[in-house]
Amino acid sequence: MEMKLTEILLESRLVAIVRGISREEAVTAGQGMTNGGIRLMEVTLNTPNAHQIIADWRERHEGQAYIGAGTVLNVSMAKEAVAAGAQFLVSPNVDLSVIEYAVEHGIDIWPGAMTPTEIVAAYEAGARAVKLFPMASLGIPYLREIKAPLDHIPLLATGGATLENIAAYYAAGAAAVGLGSALLPKEALVSGDIMQIADRAQAFVEAANR
């Protein structure tokens, strides 16, 4: 089983990250995001019913989007996520045993790292892209600075991206951007407004393709 989702990550340049929403809201979110053209959607495992949401999304959006698990902190969480249907794994940290598990099983993993040492360690362990986190705190100048010596490692910049600033993320060297709350307005989730989420998603997809 070869790892192909990193190619989709580098092509689409976006990952949607969903945290702390209900199963009902997840139906709205999933439909809106896929309608808007988002191809990679991640549910963090500290979301209640995360495994059910992953399974629901796999069933609903098969062929349209790939579904992953986020906040994967150890191998048992990785195994449970894959059993629920996760097609890729994302973590906030570099855990070599989690990376090793994913690589052995042919599952794309994008571990979270902050320092050059962590980024290189994750890449050397087999991660084909590394999540730069927490991007909102580190900022664009930090991304630009570490890309200079590490330009061979694709970075998924995660945190703080909005429609207004996403172009600066790409300009500074982000291979892809992880999108959180900016993609899913709370009021749209609560009211079940699929159209509003689809419009927002489409705007981000267009920004990523510029």
Describe the protein's architecture and organization.
- This protein is 48% helix and 16% strand.
- Helix 2 links the parallel strand 1 (14-18) and strand 2.
- The protein has helices at 5-12, 23-35, 50-61, 75-84, 96-104, 116-124, 135-138, 140-147, 166-171, 186-191, 194-208, and strands at 14-18, 40-44, 66-70, 88-90, 108-110, 112-113, 130-132, 155-158, 176-179.
- A nine-stranded parallel β-sheet has the order 5-4-3-2-1-9-8-7-6.
- It is globular.
- The termini are far apart.
- It has 210 residues and is an alpha/beta fold.
Secondary-structure blueprint:
Elements: H1 5-12, E1 14-18, H2 23-35, E2 40-44, H3 50-61, E3 66-70, H4 75-84, E4 88-90, H5 96-104, E5 108-110, E6 112-113, H6 116-124, E7 130-132, H7 135-138, H8 140-147, E8 155-158, H9 166-171, E9 176-179, H10 186-191, H11 194-208
